[in-house]
Give the backbone structure.
Amino acid sequence: MVGTLVHQLTDDASINEIEKGGLGPYYTDHGVGVYPQSASGTPFTAAYIAVKGDPIADLQEDLAAEQKARATYEKLIDLCRDNADVVDVLQYLRQREVVHFQRFGEALRNVQDKLAQKKFYMNNKNLITNLNDIGDNTVNNMTVTQSNDNMMNYNSNCGCNNR
């Protein structure tokens, strides 16, 4: 969205205005097209997306990315104080980052709570048969899953899990 905003602001600019605004090198490489790069000219790369495959590590990375984006929008707002229309768009984008941060925080707490639940394992073929017959995977507030070796995994949802 920021790239599109810059494009809209520079679309009708003359070459003199572009040069005067310090955008000569950018214009030389990209015209007034949208090309995602940092303020120092480093192009966007998928290397910015840090994924470990661990839900807690990945959510922490998401939280950090949202805060970095929020901070960037605040700096852009500082640079554009004289243009109310641009500031309005940037404030909207900054607020989205705040909401995303809150949602990722909620997701992190949910994952941590799920991982902290006590698990009970047992091998009871009669119970497995009975559960399969009725097709219900919830018994007495306990979520039941069956592994390949017929071991039962019970995740207690009673709210009394202590660490």
User: Anything to note?
Assistant: Residues 21 and 143 are 62 Å apart (CA to CA).
